[in-house]
Amino acid sequence: MITQVTKGIKISVDTTFEGTFFKNYKMHFAFGYTITIENQGKDVVQLTSRHWEIFDSLNEFEVLDGEGVIGKKPVIRPGESHTYSSGCLLAAPIGAMKGHYNMVNFTNSEKFRVYVPTFKFNAPFALN
């Protein structure tokens, strides 16, 4: 598990290899990830949007920006957390993601970023 804390918000990430399949006559590698966003601060916060940078070992690079996470903009009170699972497809059996969440502090209306540490994807058969 990978973890990082930014401004009292702890991000924890677990990854899994989901398998391979063909799409458009090309093999793809499916990976899943589960992220827990824990509010270790003293103010109520809301996640409003996300930014992802996705890399694979074939030097493919993709940037994704969007509202919330999996269709939600969770409000997280002090001492509480929000967990969700998602996934990505890579053209290679090894890759990584990193990014950030844009958040709002309800106490002072401050907008801030919470960084998601780089987390790696590895198909078990790709490593020695």
UniProtKB/TrEMBL annotation:
Cited Pfam families: DUF525
Residue ranges constituting the ApaG domain according to the UniProt record: 3-128
InterPro entries named among the record's database cross-references: ApaG_domain, ApaG_sf
Any GO BP: error-free translesion synthesis
Source species, domain of life: Bacteria
Gene3D superfamilies (alphabetical): ApaG domain
Name of the protein in question: Co2+/Mg2+ efflux protein ApaG
